[in-house]
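Agenda item 2: 2-phosphoglycolic acid complex prediction
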Amino acid sequence: MRTKIVAGNWKMNLDYFEGLNLFNEIVTLIKQEVTGKQEAIICSPYIHLHALANLVIDTEKVSVGAQNAHHAEAGAFTGEISAKMIHSVGAEYVILGHSERRQYFAEDGALLTKKVDIALAHHLTPIYCIGETLKERESHKHFDVIKKQLVESVFHLSAADFSKLILAYEPVWAIGTGVTASADQAQEIHAFIRKEIAAKYGKAVADGITILYGGSCNPKNAHELFAKHDIDGGLIGGASLKARDFVDILKAFN
Ligand code: PGA
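Presented output:
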């Protein structure tokens, strides 16, 4: 059985106190309502991480992650945050390869390879995001794009390291747009990703890896998405900023 996960990506939202309040609300609802084995990960801005990690030491159901990490170990990189720093405050995950980082911060495959490596070296689990743009889908390049993003940044890993990853398929055209990929469209890509992993690392690795769907996932569409064989949960942006919605998505597994 693969781990079922719903990860929240708060992006650049919430000041320190707003973040603490939202997190407390989420944890309270999860403790009251979530009885299954599914797990939540909250990927907050850096400023919240230490406080949030300290608030969940009594529950296995909620963990904390960052939304980015620098690719170097340490040094003269004013304003940057390293994987080691993130791990030192109690965070366990880091989102890497999000399309907003690829688009606005020019993060490419070579850079992301370094980020994946350094995150793993510091015991952070990368939530590695891949996904095609609308233009790429319309020109029927989406399978090629997805494969390239896998090959260039995570297929260099050993099977043991690759198995530590969480993957997230996030079609760029669905992020923050209110347009969700249909459950069938998402399943088609998830199955493709698993097939590529099986070809590279074997069926056991492919069957064991958690692949999340992201892009306008909400309490209304989560059930149908999560019911698909190869979709193991979601990476949630907008709806992760409302405790009720986020926890309802977490409860959407059958
Ligand atoms: P969204 O964002 O849920 O607001 O579409 C998803 C993401 O960017 O991870």
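Discussion summary: The pocket of 2-phosphoglycolic acid is lined by residues 9, 170, 175-176, 214-217, 235-239 (CB under 6 Å).
Owner for follow-up: CH.
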